[in-house]
Write a structure and sequence with these properties.
heterodimer, A: 500 residues, mainly alpha, 2 strands, 1% strand, globular, B: 150 residues, 2 domains, 5 helices, 71% helix
């Protein structure tokens, strides 16, 4: 409890509140820009955190993350274009509401639902993360190897819609992660005679390259975005009280959506788009008037927005306890943690408890700040976005990515690697290979390699040292889950194929 | 314009090619350094092989939108020039003309360009490139690019 009080005191400092406010505003701005994802927002904000202390940097990124996911709702409602993939389900009822002249009601409902979702996610993270980190101590090298493989399998089966393509992406990520000095043997690997590769490919470089550059190339390909006629906000005011009543009128919908968001958020790689779509579908299925969904039912907005904001903090559970990002934006946060010498696990909560809990509490504050920022600044941000031409946006983002990548290690080669990976990412996206499995493979590569090699070394007395990976009961449980996941992912694909 | 492409087949071939490139560039690694990459390469080749097989046996062509490919190629070329320019000329001196080039290339798709568009874009490019350069070097204290010019 003392740690929690100290953590709360640390983030309630005036400069911290300013960082949160700026982070939420920046996140709302980026999130409301169609095509710019939460991962991209965090990657763009990353260089601005380099000169900050560890807690300040994490707080800033947490606030940006919260703001981005909420910001996606603005354009989803007003121009039927989700600002981020997490807001896809918000368009289903949010935009019909806007077309009926209820745009401000829809935004107000989305705001309240987002705040409640954000706070629920933070509360769960505060309660669940420390005991789960304690549990993670029971994981030896073999178990850590299987946890890494489980993460890759989950993201492989969820992220791309094709299990094989997802696994291929994960394997490519693992392979990229082996470039550079071996963490166990200490030898130089796969440098292709090019000395700059000896330091390996930085996670942040890969993240920026694979997530930001393909989006920029897509924007270049499409040219200037043609938006549907936007809804006019006029001079009327946001309806805070009425929206609160609307959201609380169906507590079952709210609780169910938050629960769905929380459960899915823990699954590595599931992401906000899946979360909000599942929550929306369940809201419709449980509703007494499902026929009104898709025609401007605020329950749909509540389900989508509460669940995707629960995910922001919820997806931090596997990140802070095991070092496995629950969603792609978490990988950026992991990168910042590693930059500051922080390693996920129990030590994070015992040795740097104020920092870990301060970061979590700050996300709760960021969720609460969505109300003033969204309801007061939302109108201004929305109008600015409508006036910002993509032909200025793309080169501006490119400048930030170039400077940010360079600033990481003061290395111009990193910029070349970032751009190169971005172009490769754009090409393989056309082949249905997503960036998320590749990046997760890159992140989990070190965990998997250390677990794999240490297990084999521990099993040298066995006829077949690899068997050491299979003998522990906990490993067997994880293997069983992996088999179930693969079976679950492969089964419906086969059925669909036969049906077609 | 749209083209039909068997993404499973080509995805598998891409994975297999990548596995081959890495396999033949392993060099002489010791056991501890090689054991994990070997396992990854075997998994990559296996998954790629399965994808190729699936693509050949039951691959369904996917429609791929390739309109604007010329603009993408131009965009990639501008990015490459950007990197080269930053390295050998300087950040601001490279970023301003390439910002203008990229912005005008995108804007031209909306209609003919006027001198006013060019002047406004040059001003925006100078403010953005100069502004971010100043923020990074003077405010954030990040060491500037080591190049002859700004």
């Amino acid at each position: 409890m003392e740690i929690l009080i100290a953590a709360a005191a640390a983030v309630l400092q005036p400069h911290m509140l300013v960082i949160i406010l700026l982070g939420v505003t920046a996140g709302l701005f980026v999130g409301a820009l169609p095509g710019l994802t939460a991962t991209m927002a965090l990657a763009l904000m990353l260089p601005f955190t380099f000169s900050l202390e560890a807690l300040e940097g994490l707080v800033a990124l947490g606030a940006v993350y919260m703001g981005t996911i909420y910001g996606g709702a603005f354009t989803a409602i007003l121009i039927n274009t989700p600002g981020t993939p997490s807001s896809i389900a918000t368009t289903f009822d949010g935009h019909p509401m806007a077309k009926q002249g209820r745009a401000l009601e829809a935004i107000s409902v989305a705001t309240i639902a987002s705040v409640i979702g954000g706070v629920v996610g933070v509360a769960f993270l505060l309660i669940a993360a420390p005991p789960l980190a304690q549990l993670a101590l029971r994981f030896g090298p073999a178990e850590m190897f299987w946890v890494a493989i489980l993460g890759l399998t989950l993201i492989g089966s969820l992220a791309t819609g094709s299990l094989l393509k997802g696994l291929l992406g994960g394997a490519i990520g693992l392979l990229i992660g082996t470039i550079g000095i071996s963490p166990v043997g200490g030898e130089s690997r796969f440098t292709f005679g090019w000395p700059p590769l000896q330091g390996g490919i930085s996670l942040i470089v890969a993240l920026i390259g694979l997530f930001v550059i393909p989006e920029l190339l897509l924007m270049i390909r499409r040219g200037h975005a043609t938006l549907e006629t936007p809804a006019d906000l006029g001079r009327s005011r946001f309806q805070f009280g009425a929206a609160l009543r609307t959201v609380l009128a169906k507590p079952g919908n709210l609780i169910r959506s938050c629960a769905i968001g929380q459960v899915i958020a823990i699954i590595p790689g599931a992401g906000g788009s899946i979360t909000s779509l599942v929550a929306y579908n369940e809201a419709k299925r449980w509703s007494k008037s499902p026929e009104t969904f898709g025609k401007g039912n605020p329950e749909g907005v509540v389900a989508s927005e509460s669940s995707n904001n629960v995910m922001v903090a919820g997806s931090m559970v596997p990140l802070l306890t095991l070092g496995i990002p629950g969603a792609p934006p978490d990988a950026i946060i992991l990168g910042v943690m590693l930059l500051h010498g922080l390693r996920p696990g129990l030590d994070l909560f015992t040795q740097t408890g104020v920092l870990a809990n301060g970061f979590i509490i700050s996300m709760g504050l960021a969720a609460l700040m969505l109300i003033p920022v969204g309801l007061l600044g939302g109108r201004l941000i929305y109008k600015t976005i409508l006036r910002t031409p993509h032909y200025y946006l793309v080169p501006t983002i490119l400048i930030i990515t170039i400077l940010g990548t360079y600033a990481l290690r003061n290395n111009i080669i990193d910029v070349a690697l970032m751009l190169g990976l971005g172009v490769v990412g754009f090409v393989i996206r056309g082949l249905g290979l997503g960036a998320a499995p590749i990046v997760l493979g890159l992140i989990l590569g070190t965990i998997a390699e250390q677990g794999y090699v240490q297990s084999i070394l521990g099993g040298m007395a066995l006829d077949f040292p690899q068997m050491r990976l299979f003998v522990n009961p906990l490993s067997q449980v994880l293997i069983a889950i992996i088999v179930l996941v693969i079976g679950w992912a492969a089964w419906p694909q086969n059925l669909r194929r036969k049906k077609d | 314009m749209q083209i039909r492409i068997n993404t499973e087949l080509y995805g598998g071939l891409f994975g297999m090619a990548l596995a081959a490139i890495f396999w033949f560039n392993k060099g002489n690694m010791g056991f501890l350094s090689a054991v994990f990459p070997d396992a990854v390469l075997i998994i990559l080749a296996t998954v790629s092989g399965l994808l190729i097989l699936r693509g050949l046996i039951a691959g369904e062509p996917t429609l791929l939108d390739v309109s604007g490919a010329g603009h993408v190629i131009s965009g990639v070329a501008i990015m490459a020039l950007w990197w080269l320019g930053i390295r050998y000329v300087g950040f601001v001196t490279t970023s301003v003309p390439l910002f203008v080039a990229l912005a005008l290339m995108m804007k031209r798709r909306e209609g003919p360009l006027s001198w006013r568009d060019v002047i406004i874009t040059v001003i925006v490019a100078t403010v953005v490139a100069g502004g971010f350069f100043w923020v990074f070097t003077e405010v954030l204290g990040i060491r500037p690019f080591r190049a002859p010019l700004l």
